[in-house]
Hints:
Blueprint: H1 3-10, H2 12-35, H3 37-65, H4 72-91, H5 93-121, H6 128-147, H7 156-181
Helix pairs in contact: 2-3, 2-7, 3-4, 3-5, 3-7, 4-5, 5-6
InterPro entries: Acid_resist_chaperone_HdeD (IPR052712), DUF308_memb (IPR005325)
Keywords: Membrane, Transmembrane, Transmembrane helix
Pfam families: DUF308 (PF03729)
Amino acid sequence: MTDQDMIHDTAPRGLRTWLWIAGIVSIVMGGAAVLFPFAATLAAELVFGAILVVSGIVELVRAFAMRHNGSLAWNALFGLVAVVAGAILLAWPLQGMVTLTIVLGVFFLLGGAFKLVAGFGLRPFPGWGWIGFSGALSVLLGVLVLFGLPGTALWAVGLLVGIDLIFLGVAEIAMASALARE
């Protein structure tokens, strides 16, 4: 029996069920984020701040537990930086939303520029224009997000996370449906 046969014989029913559940939950949560982008942006910023605080505390504990290996100062500084950065995001969430939006805008701007260059570099190959088009859209999105500040900070992260969750949910359901056909 091949690996492909085992996938189709043992996992499909449970796998299909979980893909459907995950897909529906992703679509619902993505839809909520699209409908309420400010709440989703604020939630993302607060979760990120909390993750930094918790991971920083864990790093501080680890640094002191492993202080005999000679890197206590560097590990403790890293943990402290994470705790302070997370605490700042939690204490001033609106400013944190602006910061995350700036990072996102710069990511789209630079990533789009790189995709544009890559697209033109692929010019003799079929479909090269799609890479360039994707790059142009990313640059445009980056410009819109950055030049729209501070207003875009209230919705950009939440909206984009929501759209991503919707596409993930659709992909999961499509995969579950493909498994059911086989």
